[in-house]
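Notes from the pairing session

We agreed to fold both candidates in a single pass and log them together. This is the raw record for the first candidate, unedited. Please don't reformat it; downstream parsing expects exactly this layout.

Candidate A
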Amino acid sequence: MIQLYTAATPNGHKISVLLEELGVDYNVHVIDFDKNEQKSEAFLNINPNGRIPAIVDTEADADGDEFAVFESGAIMIYLADKYGQFLPSETKARSQVIQWLMFQMGGVGPMMGQANVFYRYFPEKIPAAIERYQKEVKRLFSVLDTHLADNSYLAGDYSIADMANWCWVHTHEWSGVDIEPYKHLKRWVAEIATRPAVQKGISVPPSEIDEKQLQEAGRNLI
């Protein structure tokens, strides 16, 4: 059984969406940022970095040993490998998926997180900082849009790369960025949003994007 430690943030939803797409049973443990549970000794034993999401696979091997995984991208790769879905085994196809997953991990997530902070939560408005991060988000959206002009999904078939990027991109309003100019990206966002597993996954925790949780997610990126 997979034990999911999560909160209502894009990174948290990446894992619940994947678990729903895989159709596997899992237990949800919601981490309360107000109580600083992500810094508790119990949670740090699972993720020494003190961030969500994290998982514990309680049936990881024949000996029954539990296995903890932290970092959302690493969790997605682990789960896709474990259940044999959404990540090809062929070397080049696998690399393409991982490249777009890393694009989200290294670019889309951090830049949207910083845009969230300076656009919504920073105690003072700093126009230069807001413009810097929104401009970079727009550049990244343009990269996605250009690629999606000739591709239904980011790397061949629907994969963990699509799930990871979508969970951030669909929150674009929180970064103050409009996706209207990016028609191919907009099509992709709308199409993935219709998937039942995606709809259920972003309701774990509740489907409304929780401002307090997003604020914490953004603050962690400063």
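Candidate B (folded immediately after A)
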Amino acid sequence: MGDAGVNVEKNIIEEYNIKNIDILKVGHHGSNTSSSQSFINEIKPKYSIISVGRNNRYNHPNEEVLKRLINSIVYRTDLDGTIEIEFNKKINIARYLP
């Protein structure tokens, strides 16, 4: 999702039939400028990956975004280190702590 904001999320929902996705790379390091409740409700990610630095000055990820992802298994690079995703017959996610 990169730095896609709420308007881009709205366009994605309107343009594509994306529902019940396996993995969401959470936009903008978990900032509240993305990952709107309507977007999360629509795509229903099974897993969510947040790339974020430890003790960053923006206090990412935002607590509201984390609450929106309550039904998703969340991995965060600040807590989980490097995250490796392997696709075979199923999804395998490994963490490598710093």
